[in-house]
Amino acid sequence: MRIARVLAAAAAVFTIASGIAQAETTLRIGLAEDPDVLDPTLARTYVGRIVFASFCDKLFDIDEKLNVVPQLALSHTTSADGKTVTIKLRPNVKFHDGEAFDAAAAKYSLDRHRTMTGSFRKPELAAVDHIDVVDPLTINIVLKQPYAPLIAQLTDRSGMMVAPEAAKAAGDKFGLHPVCAGPYKFVERVQQDRIVFEKFKDYWNKDNVHIDKVVFLPIVDATVRLANLKSGGLDLIERVLATDIKTVRADKNLVLSTALELGYQGMDINVGKGDAAKSPLGQSAKVREALELAIDRDALNQVVFNGEFKPGNQWVSPENPYYQQSVPVPKRDVAKAKALMKEAGVTKPFDVDFMVPKGAETQAVAEVIQAMAAEIGINMKIRVTEFATSLKQAEQGNYQAFMLAWSGRTDPDGNSYSFYKCHAPLNYAGYCNPEVDKLLDESRVPSDQKARKAVYEKIEKILSKDEPIVYLYHRRILIAHTAKLEGYKQMPDGLVRVVGLRFK
């Protein structure tokens, strides 16, 4: 009897222990790349924004229709002259290290974004003159001039709040052990392998956080990502290949979530950065126009993406209210392209150093462009490069054409200003036009959509002639996850929001 009781007790302990082990849930997310630095002030990659969404809350967020909704801020008002924005903050919020989030912390984070050496948030907050602490839960953002995109900027990395004491202590090494105020807190990162987070027990919205751990796993090969999802090794993957859409939809164990992206896919042309810009493509707008006319966007969409994506020729998609109908997507015209080459004085074929980030779809697009451009005597010499390396090369001007994806922002300013303003951090093309600079600054002033769109039309008509960026198409965000995961909603910004998710 005693042995039986011991065995029964042992079995009970085993059952309880097993129950505890099973109770802890982990969400495993497959990423298409390894993110850059996990510091919202210094970061710049799309995949990094996906990771930030799990641990670094912002002042504001967006919903499915791009409406601004509260996150760490509760509300905002703007003064009659448009130069002071008052933001009320959420009470009883803590950072992951226990430090309180308040007006002083919000001011610190915004000032860090604005002033830190190497900050990629500087141009997004360039209109800010200073920030005042009104009371423990209120700040005033005082602007140099009215700035219509401000609140939209605060729905992204410019609005992410970092723990002041941790950030001061770490300096530019903050990204090695980031401390924010999101639903999950940082545990560890192994480059090119994994990033691990665990549930933050003092999160302000903890009752809506149902999963214990989130692990991000960079897997560059989309086919391998999907295979891991199908086998149960992953629970959610981003950037499903368009050619795999039918496969995912046919699998009863998987769910496909989709939305048209806010950003674009295109080619930056080096027109002003170093010796690499001194080519027929970099020096002649007619040659750049010829390259665009050699490209059949509809055919490219059909060949590479089974027609699932949206051809485009601007920094917003044809479905966006800011799209300029007066500058429609051009059709392929090889005869006109050849005539433009002749007008530009280009009589012999020439080579172009075409830098292409590694990835099956991106490389496939590059090969289609290569074949089309060859018909007019432009030899696009594809140079496949790791994504992080390609950004460094682009900054240094070590390319002539660069296939670049931009995930997009809720306000059109986020898709244009930093790419075209003279010497702006994302102006990889080295483009500089004083008239465009003036119009870009003007576009940030009016809050009325019609008035802003009129300014953007002037900008687009100049850029459609200068062509420092050749826009190609707009992706559909393709997220696949196990059917066991409930509560997932895809937003147009492409981010993966983990609050509210649970396993069946």
Account of the 3D structure:
The protein is of the alpha+beta class and 504 residues long. The chain is built from 16 helices and 23 strands. It has 3 domains: 26-33 and 182-255 and 477-503, D-Maltodextrin-Binding Protein, domain 2 (3-Layer(aba) Sandwich), CATH 3.40.190; 57-165, Dipeptide-binding Protein, Domain 1 (Dipeptide-binding Protein, domain 1, Alpha-Beta Complex), CATH 3.90.76.10; 264-474, Roll (Dipeptide-binding Protein, domain 3), CATH 3.10.105.10. A 7-stranded mixed β-sheet has the order 10-11-12-1-13-21-14, sandwiched between helices. Helix 15 (434-443) packs antiparallel against helix 16 (449-466). The longest helix has 22 residues, at 2-23. It starts with a helix and ends with a strand.
Please, how many domains?
3
SSE-based structural type: alpha+beta
Query: CA-to-CA gap between the ends?
Result: 40 Å
Radius of gyration from the alpha-carbon trace, in angstroms = 25 Å
Major sheet characteristics: 7 strands, mixed
Number of strands: 23
Note the overall shape: globular
Which blocks of ≥5 consecutive residues have pLDDT under 50? Answer: 1-21
Name the CATH class of the largest domain: Alpha Beta
Count of individual helical segments: 16
**CATH homolog superfamily of the largest domain:** Dipeptide-binding Protein, Domain 3
CATH architectural name of the largest domain: Roll
Strand order across the largest sheet: 10-11-12-1-13-21-14
**CATH topology-level name of the largest domain:** Dipeptide-binding Protein, domain 3
